[in-house]
């Protein structure tokens, strides 16, 4: 069962969702596979129950999962503020994580429901289902559907399965639990198609492969190869006609190197804004490191944005990583 201490009972959230006529679903900016999969999964589940739903995202949709049914309906514009009966935040727990557009649009009278698996503090006025031990937000939505006994169609099953495999690395990462494997099996029993999902999500355009090759070829090894860093500039993205979404999967490649403890990808968003994605071995907790930069995430997958140049952000981050690895004896 979900740990519901200080949180709404999952069935209470289910009942709130079913009672709404109009819902706005939103995920964190630049949504990844789990954010998109959980949003589309909930969209298909509730649409089949008669709810009118709009979906919002700020930034690019994840290239690897844009094949999912309904992805084309995720808009970058918001409805009139009075339209939704509730706003559902998926894979994030604060409107600011969904981007400036949504954060500025939110009104005090809006009822906000949070379904998330990230670490962090949540406004106590929200209706909350936040479980950091869950492998993915799509896992929580799947559990919600199962416990509410909602009818599930193949579109919802595929979206939720895709969200789960995106955040578990196809069940290869340390967040893979017996619970998520059981729920994934339940989705397959209800129509999810693992092989076509994997084939579509893992397909790559040639220009993206060339971009990855250039970035990986410039990998910086530090601290005796325990720390590996990548940098992606706007110029590189432009040269290969790629977007930020095409950088998905790069930092995970670093964790395949023998002896590496922490892998980092620094992405140049603007001339003075850098987005940092980090991964670590199971025994190294990088979530507090991310939070020290006002970011967040999980024990072994976290990130943040920071103002400054690539060199400035890299130097500040490396200083803290050195201390972290010293604290863990660099194991």
Can you characterise this structure?
The protein is α/β, with parallel strands linked by helices and 331 residues long. It has two domains: 10-201, inorganic pyrophosphatase (n-terminal core) (Alpha-Beta Complex); 206-327, Diaminopimelate Epimerase, Chain A, domain 1 (Roll). Helices cover 37% and strands 19% of the residues. It contains twelve helices and twelve strands. It has a six-stranded parallel β-sheet. Strands 7-8-9-10-12-11 form a six-stranded mixed β-sheet. Helix 4 (137-148) packs antiparallel against helix 5 (154-168). The model is unreliable at 1-7 (pLDDT under 50).
What is the secondary structure topology, with strand pairs?
Layout: H1 10-19, E1 22-27, H2 33-47, E2 52-56, E3 74-75, E4 86-90, H3 100-105, E5 112-116, E6 127-130, H4 137-148, H5 154-168, H6 178-189, H7 194-201, H8 206-217, E7 220-222, E8 227-232, H9 234-239, H10 250-254, E9 262-270, E10 273-280, H11 287-291, E11 296-297, E12 301-307, H12 310-327
Parallel strand pairs: 1-2, 1-4, 2-3, 4-5, 5-6, 8-9
Antiparallel strand pairs: 7-8, 9-10, 10-12, 11-12
Helix pairs in contact: 1-4, 2-4, 2-5, 4-5, 5-6
Keyword list:
six-stranded mixed β-sheet; single chain; inorganic pyrophosphatase (n-terminal core); alpha/beta; six-stranded parallel β-sheet; 2 domains; 12 strands; disordered N terminus; globular; 331 residues
């Amino acid at each position: 069962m979900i740990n519901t201490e200080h949180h709404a009972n999952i069935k209470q959230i289910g009942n709130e969702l079913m009672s709404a006529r109009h819902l706005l679903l939103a995920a964190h900016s630049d949504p990844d596979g789990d954010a998109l999969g959980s949003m589309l999964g909930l969209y298909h589940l509730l649409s089949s129950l008669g709810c009118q739903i709009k979906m919002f995202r700020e930034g690019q949709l994840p290239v690897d999962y844009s094949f999912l049914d309904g992805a084309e309906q995720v808009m970058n514009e918001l409805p009139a503020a009075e339209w939704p009966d509730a706003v559902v935040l998926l894979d994030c727990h604060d409107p600011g994580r969904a981007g400036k557009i949504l954060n500025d649009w939110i009104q005090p009278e809006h009822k906000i429901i949070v379904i998330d698996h990230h670490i962090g503090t949540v406004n106590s006025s929200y209706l909350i289902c936040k479980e950091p031990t869950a492998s993915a937000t799509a896992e929580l939505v799947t559990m919600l559907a199962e416990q509410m006994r909602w009818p599930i169609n193949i579109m919802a099953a595929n979206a939720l399965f895709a969200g789960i495999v995106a955040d578990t690395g196809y069940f290869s990462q340390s967040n893979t639990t017996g619970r998520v494997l059981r729920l994934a099996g339940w989705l397959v029993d209800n129509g999810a198609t693992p092989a076509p999902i994997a084939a579509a999500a893992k397909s790559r355009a040639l220009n993206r492969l060339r971009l990855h090759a250039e970035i990986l070829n410039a990998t910086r090894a530090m601290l005796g190869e325990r720390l590996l860093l990548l940098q992606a500039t706007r110029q590189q993205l432009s040269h290969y006609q790629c977007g930020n979404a095409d950088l998905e999967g790069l930092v995970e490649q670093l964790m395949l190197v023998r002896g590496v403890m922490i892998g980092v990808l620094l992405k140049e968003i603007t001339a003075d804004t850098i987005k940092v994605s980090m991964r670590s071995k199971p025994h190294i907790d990088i979530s507090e490191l991310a939070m020290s930069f006002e970011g967040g995430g999980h024990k072994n997958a976290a990130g943040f944005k920071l103002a400054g140049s690539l060199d400035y952000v890299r130097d500040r981050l490396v200083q803290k990583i050195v201390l972290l690895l010293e604290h863990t004896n660099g194991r």
